Structure formats: structure tokens, C-alpha cells
UniProtKB/TrEMBL annotation:
Domain Cobalamin adenosyltransferase-like, first and last residues per copy: 1-163
Catalytic activity, reaction form: cob(I)alamin-[corrinoid adenosyltransferase] + ATP = apo-[corrinoid adenosyltransferase] + adenosylcob(III)alamin + triphosphate
Organism superkingdom: Eukaryota
Gene Ontology MF: a single term: ATP binding
Keyword Protein transport set for record: no
Homology family: Belongs to the Cob(I)alamin adenosyltransferase family.
Organism of derivation: Agelaius phoeniceus (Red-winged blackbird)
UniProt keyword annotations, A-Z: ATP-binding, Nucleotide-binding, Transferase
Gene3D superfamilies reported in the protein's UniProt record: Cobalamin adenosyltransferase-like
Pfam families xref list: Cob_adeno_trans
GO biological process: cobalamin metabolic process
Subunit comment: Homotrimer.
Protein known as: Corrinoid adenosyltransferase MMAB
InterPro entries in UniProt: CblAdoTrfase-like, CblAdoTrfase-like_sf, PduO-typ
Length: 179
């Protein structure tokens, strides 16, 4: 009938921004899964990190599905989202960034299948973040969820560049067309 339930049992229309954010987060996990499969074929060790990210996205979804306006303390405790995964992403970003050449131009999604799939995942991540931010601003979701998605998009960008470098694939750069 066009309604669904949150984790708290509250019934909301399927078009509610909570379900929009949940859908975007689910798409993100699927995109990362695809990128992980391509990367696994190349034997990249970061595939384990991508799997861990997918698990964290389940926790992101749990937090989003538990609107703070209707959550009891037991719900909040069970679906809280800590700062620890954000700090871990930042460590991963620093580790890969140290191995990359400096960025001197805008990069277009490219650099082989693994890299392109990671760039696609980054774009989906940014959409998920745009869906979550209004929930955080309305006091319905934990601010750490939005911070995690923000840092995740940076991680996916750095990882896409790293994959292209490891495969010896050229990253296509933006070239301004002649007027």
C-alpha cells in the first residue's frame, strides 16, 4: 500500500527520505561489491577493506532505519554509529595517498575496470551522502553516518587512483574543449 516500517516500527510512506537514504546506501554496497569483484580478479589486498566497508554500510543502514524521533533507548543503543570507522577510513586514505603521484588535473572515471568501478562507487556514495545529510540536519540520524559517507567517497577516489596505478592504466584527465 506504499508504506514500509522503520526499525522502530513506525510506518512511513515508501517515498520518505529515510527509505530514499536506505536505497542509496544499498546501491552503494552493491556498487562496492561489483568493484570488489573486479578488484579481486586482480588480486588486490584492499578487497578485504571493501568487504569491511560493505559490513559498515549495513550499520549505516541500521542507523538510518532508526529515526531518532521515534527511537527508544534500546533502539539507539543497538544502532549507534561510532567515530572509529571514520578514523579507520582516514588511515586507509593516508596509506594509499602516500603511494600516489600528486593530483595535477581533474581525473575522469577511468583507469581500467577496477578503477572505473571504484569511481562509480564514489559517485553512488556521494548520492547516498546527499540523502543522509538532511536526515542528520533534521536530527533523525547520527552525524557520524554522514561523516562516514563523506570520508568513504574520498577513500573510494584514492583507491580508484591506486588501482589504476597498480594496473599501469592511464587515468584520463579533463581537457577543456576549444570554444
Amino acid at each position: 500500500k506504499g508504506f514500509s516500517s522503520t526499525f522502530t516500527g513506525e510506518r512511513r510512506p515508501k517515498g520518505d527520505r529515510i527509505f530514499e537514504a536506505l536505497g542509496a546506501t544499498d546501491e552503494l554496497s552493491s556498487a562496492i561489491g561489483l568493484a570488489g569483484e573486479f578488484s579481486s580478479e586482480k588480486g588486490y589486498t584492499f578487497v578485504d577493506q571493501l568487504h569491511k566497508v560493505q559490513c559498515m554500510l549495513q550499520d549505516v543502514g541500521s542507523n538510518i532505519a532508526t529515526p531518532l524521533s521515534s527511537a527508544r533507548e534500546a533502539h539507539r543503543k543497538r544502532t549507534s554509529f561510532s567515530e572509529k570507522p571514520i578514523l579507520e577510513l582516514e588511515q586507509w586514505i593516508d596509506s594509499y595517498s602516500e603511494q600516489l603521484p600528486p593530483l595535477r588535473a581533474f581525473i575522469l572515471p577511468s583507469g581500467g575496470r577496477s578503477s572505473a568501478a571504484l569511481h562509480f562507487s564514489r559517485a553512488v556514495c556521494r548520492r547516498a551522502e546527499r540523502c543522509v545529510v538532511p536526515l542528520v540536519q533534521a536530527g533523525e540520524a547520527d552525524p557520524n553516518v554522514a561523516k562516514y559517507l563523506n570520508r568513504l567517497s574520498d577513500y573510494l577516489f584514492v583507491l580508484a587512483r591506486y588501482a589504476a596505478m597498480k594496473e599501469g592504466k592511464e587515468e584520463k584527465i579533463y581537457i577543456k574543449p576549444e570554444p
